[in-house]
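To fix ideas, we reproduce below a protein record of this kind.
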Amino acid sequence: MKRICVYCGANAGSSPAYLEAAKNCGAALAAHGIGVVYGGGNIGLMGAVADGALAAGGDVIGVIPHHLADKELAHEGASQMIRVDTMHERKHRMAELCDGFLILPGGIGTLEEMFEVFTWLQLGLHHKPIGLLNVAAFYDPLLTFLDSMVAAAFLRREHRDMLLVETELEALLPRMTSFEAPVLGKWWDKG
């Protein structure tokens, strides 16, 4: 695994644990020789991931739309900053550049990004691992909801299980690097 795309908040959140986890995540990825692909910002958890990776000598590629970069939100220290025209182009480019996806706490943008690549995995449009780092139980309500989708027969258990969840990055990274997308039945099949 050469690069991981990190989705996370442009805000720092209410708990210091979120910011600490983001900075440690960037540093740990760099220590493992894994580059970071992210949304290019210099604020919130996004900035902390980039700062952590850069401080540890890691490679950081930011992908940011012009309208956000122009507001002086682009990280000046990134190894490479790719400017794009639209949010759709940003997500597509980030997905192209990475070998897997890592989800940290964030807002609706983070959820939208996560669910898009999760859907793509379910549909077989990519076979990259998706790891969710459940920092300070942030994602507990979402995980409960996903399990309720399984119970209500809107999500197959084997598809739900493709989302790799851990509370520690050192437990999550080995699962991501050894991930092999299972050959599954069609998501609309009951069989």
Notes: The mean pLDDT is 94. The longest helix spans residues 16-31. The longest strand covers residues 60-65. Strands lie at 3-7, 35-38, 60-65, 80-84, 101-103, 130-133, 163-166.
